[in-house]
Amino acid sequence: MYKSISEALDFIKPNMRIFLHGGAATPRYLCSALANKVKEISPIEITGISLHGPNALIQPQLLGDIHFNSCFLGDNLREAVHNGYADYIPVFLSEIPALFSSGKLKLDVAIIQVSPPDKFGFCSLGVSVDIAKSAVNNAKLIIAQVNPRMPRTHGHGIIHIKEISAMVYHEEELDESCFISEIKPTSKKIGENCAALIEDGSTLQMGIGEIPNAVLASLTNHKNLGIHTEMLSDGVIPLMEIGAINNKNKIKHPGKVVTGFAMGSRKLYDFIDDNPEFAFLESEYINNPYVIRQNPKAVAINSAIEIDLTGQICADSIGTYQYSGVGGQMDFIRGASLSIGGKPIIAMNSLTGKGKSKIVANLSEGANVVTTRAHAHYIVTEFGSVDVNGLNLRQRAKALINIAHPDFREELEKSAFERFKRF
To answer: Annotated catalytic residue: which of 230, 282, 306, 382?
Structure first.
């Protein structure tokens, strides 16, 4: 049933486009072996979404042989894109599967990581189903690293060994680089401000990182919360253990945490392993605004790099420097805004790591608008929250300045006066 890694990689030929399983599911063992073979089979193209952890394929000496054409950037690909050795495709997470199925991104090979097959021959895509299921459905060839450390998850990510062209057995730990163990005071305050907006019975979407974990940590007194999100991390575990998250009020998949992928600690991976409370589903379904809106009180919590005084939200670039990607922010902002009692929230620190205001008079030159000002609703910093929906431009500027860092409010007020003539 299993092949040697050399036999498996013999399927890969020059000029092939390869989907590489992303997030914590990135098959690092296969990546290392492919890196050693690249010179023999170059050029090849690799596509997918963010790859986390050390990756042998992302090396300066290989970037002439491998063309990364990614739909979302992790920290290990940013410099390659910035320096012209890789490319970024702006696309909603909900629409990436259609790129594969339509043939716009025709896939020759899908390199994935799966759980061991059960007695019926079915493996699981584990912690990353999102766009991987579509890649598996549409690639001509499938090469799988079978890893007993990969959780077996319920949902869309089931694949039979008959569908797999080559299986390589290798045990290794999944990446845990996105696990956040400590929450800074500023993030804690942002989490509390977000929690104040969340009603009992809400269905939550949030990302991975310090602020999402801070929000979850502030919800211990809430009741009957649900989860319908594209990604999740360790923060859901305590709330499920105390019953704050029970998913009972959801219309879509009541009783289940719905997600596309998970990234966190080994504790998280063990918690979701064969746990029927979790449903790992495809992103074209999870991120469909029509699906999201059907849950009442859908709350979407996302972040931003900077927001201008009219409410334009830049979330994926620092000026012209491509930092991440469009991802699912707009999918959930729109879905939550259409939900009965829903709340789309952008939560962020008032300052950048370099001490500059993230609420700005104008977006940086070259910055990308991910969420338009017409879609913006709740904006949260450590200094409070405002709802800009329905406000005119001058009212928005006043509201946003009130939650900006105090050191920058006078400067922002001057800019607002110059723009709007009265303030």
So the answer is: 230
